[in-house]
Amino acid sequence: MRTLVVLAHPGLARSRVNAALAEAARPVEGVTVHDLYAAYPDLTLDVEREQRLLLEHDRIVLQFPFYWYSVPPLLKKWIDEVFLYGWAYGTGGTSLHGKSLLVTTSLGGPAEAYRADGVNRYTVAELLRPIEATARMTGLRYEEPFALYGTQTLDDAGLAAHQERYRALLASGAVREPELAAV
What is the CATH classification number for the domain harbouring 84? Predict the structure, then answer.
């Protein structure tokens, strides 16, 4: 299985968690790490190149820090411009059918903050519904998200453990279906 990690962090050089996850992913056989902000510093996407990359891989991983309950701006633009009608969805739009989509996201707050009774009032699964809906619209199999909570207080040992879990998840190639209770 070939996996494309679409890394979207506008300040990766200052990132501790997403940089560490990207480093964990790079040596995994069959994994390509594609840093959108490094590839497109002017924020102008090469749509044909991006579509080729997607066609060359079986699994797409969107890796990003959770930004105001959503994705960073360039990742939103990437989805808008690359997942075109007639290519990714709609009449003739079957290019992504049968591939899988895994969201990997880092959150500064603790898991308890992402519950109905928590400060954010919603679970991460609920907040990621637009990405899940996009996956379904484009024929991608949506996987259970890989969410790292409490990254602002994460120590080195905890970060190393997350890196190992991420590496193992990418290496296994196993698609993790979301649990119905979490959706």
Answer: 3.40.50.360
DSSP string, 16-60: SHHHHHHHHHTTSTTEEEEEHHHH-TT----HHHHHHHHHT-SEE
CA distance 31 to 26: 7
Kindly report the pTM of this predicted structure: 0.93
End-to-end CA distance of the chain: 26
CA 133/CA 70 separation, integer angstroms: 14
Indicate the residue type of 150. Answer: G
The Cα–Cα gap between 125 and 140 comes to 17
pLDDT given at position 173? 74
Kindly state the tokens that stand for 101. Answer: 């989509």
Of 140, 141, 159, 139, residue with least CA distance to 149 = 159
- Domain range for 130: 3-182
pLDDT tens digits, residue range 33-88? 999 999 999 999 999 999 999 999 999 999 999 989 999 999 999 999 999 999 99
Please report which helix (H) or strand (E) contains residue 63, including its range: strand 59-65
